[in-house]
Specification:
The complex is a heterodimer of chains A (186) and B (182). With 186 residues, chain A is mostly helical. Chain A is 79% helix and 0% strand. Chain A is built from nine helices and no strands. In chain A, helix 1 packs across helix 2, helix 3 crosses helix 4 and helix 4 packs across helix 8. The longest helix of chain A has 24 residues. Chain A starts with 5 loop residues before the first helix and ends with a helix. With 182 residues, chain B is an all-alpha fold. Chain B is 62% helix and 0% strand. Chain B is built from nine helices and no strands. Chain B is rod-shaped and about 140 Å long. The chains are: A mainly alpha (186), B mainly alpha (182). At the A-B interface, helix 2, helix 3, helix 6 and helix 9 of A face helix 1, helix 2 and helix 3 of B.
Chain lengths: 186, 182
């Protein structure tokens, strides 16, 4: 079942709503979206263990809320929305547990520098890019990650983050300008 | 550029659109890598957690939630409330003295008496020395007492008739009292 097509998604939704086929369809759903969602969450949280926790919670919540999913948006964007919210909640908890709320970000950047020293040229630019992304304000960072890394369309991003396509384009543009400035001057 | 500079509006372009020449020239970023075998095991781990949290996945369709959400349950709940209010209202009306219906015990007593032959009742009352007042209390209705009283008068007249004519009680069998001139 190729569920990212319109017909495939409708068929999957039907299977998810039938008690007999629900578990099998949910496994298909997880196998389809686990990797892009993992990448999305990992870019927001930075480490595997936290990503694993949040990814599990994302799918558990999607199972619980399936009855409420009306199909107004695509399953993919619905899952990205849950994942993004869960990742932000996790980040917020993590920062509350840290004495200094900026320490977590500083720690992440410090690790990036350490990685930078060991990386080859191809990896170096990616790590520098990652550092630039981590310096962005939260909203611009979310928009950039969803567009550049996760390759969502602006319409899909509007479903995930809310807001208009125009404002998302503006946020992405600002983010790109800041990143390019960082990459060329630092 | 520092974090402060990145947050500073002076460093933000007002133009809209993607405008990412440098970024477009970069190789596509690699996806963050998960430990080997992680994605093979992941679905089973999630299903296992679901199983622990909310029962067997195939049985779980948020059963409680579905029952609560079911239309028939909502209608049943509404009907129960209406019924409870109706019963409460009826009880209040009864306690306030509205309606003149006799209670269940009285109705039962009267209906039981109706099945017994009138003469037997009268004979029983005389034999047991039960007064009219006792009967009144038992039946609770002057109208009922009048009916019994009339029967008793008839019975007295019937005894007098028997005595006058030297008849035995058994001779009354098969006689219609309505035909007698008492």
């Amino acid at each position: 079942m190729h569920i990212e097509s319109r017909d495939g998604e409708a068929e999957l939704l039907r299977s998810l709503r039938e008690p007999q086929s629900r578990e099998r369809a949910f496994t298909v759903l997880m196998r389809t979206f686990q990797e892009p969602l993992y990448a999305h969450i990992r870019r927001m949280l930075g480490n595997h263990d936290d990503t694993d926790d949040v990814l599990q919670v994302t799918f558990i919540k999607s199972w619980k809320y399936l009855d409420g999913f009306r199909g107004d948006s695509k399953i993919k964007t619905w899952l990205f929305k849950i994942a993004t919210n869960e990742a932000l909640t996790h980040l917020s908890k993590r920062q509350n547990q840290t004495q200094d709320p900026l320490a977590d970000i500083a720690n992440h950047i410090e690790h990036s520098h350490a990685d930078l020293e060991m990386a080859d040229d191809g990896d170096t630019i990616q790590l520098k890019l990652e550092e630039a992304v981590n310096r962005l304000p939260t909203k611009q960072k979310q928009v950039f990650v969803l567009k550049y890394y996760d390759e969502l369309t602006y319409e899909e991003m509007a479903d995930v983050l809310g807001g208009s396509v125009g404002s998302l384009k503006a946020s992405y543009h600002h983010a790109v300008k800041k990143i390019e400035l960082f990459l060329t001057t630092d | 550029m520092s974090k402060n500079q990145m947050d500073d509006p002076k460093h933000q372009s007002s133009a809209e659109g993607e405008g990412s020449g440098l970024l477009n020239s970069l190789p596509r970023p690699k996806r963050p890598e998960a430990p080997e075998g992680y994605f093979d095991e992941f679905p089973a781990r999630v299903l296992s957690r679901l199983d622990e949290q909310i029962g067997a996945p195939e049985l779980q369709e948020s059963l409680t939630l579905r029952i609560v959400k079911a239309k028939w349950v909502q209608w049943l709940a509404a009907a129960s409330v209406v019924l409870a209010l109706g019963v409460a209202g009826w009880q209040i009306a009864q306690r306030a003295g509205l309606g003149e219906r006799q209670d269940g015990a009285e109705q039962l007593a009267l209906s039981s008496l109706e099945t017994v032959d009138e003469h037997q009742i009268i004979a029983y009352l005389e034999h047991s020395d039960i007064s009219d007042e006792d009967l009144f209390l038992a039946l609770g209705s002057p109208k009922d007492l009048d009916a019994v009283w009339e029967d008793k008068q008839d019975a007295d007249a019937a005894w007098e008739y028997l005595e006058e004519n030297g008849l035995d009680e058994t001779d009354l069998e098969g006689i219609d009292f309505n035909d007698l001139e008492l």
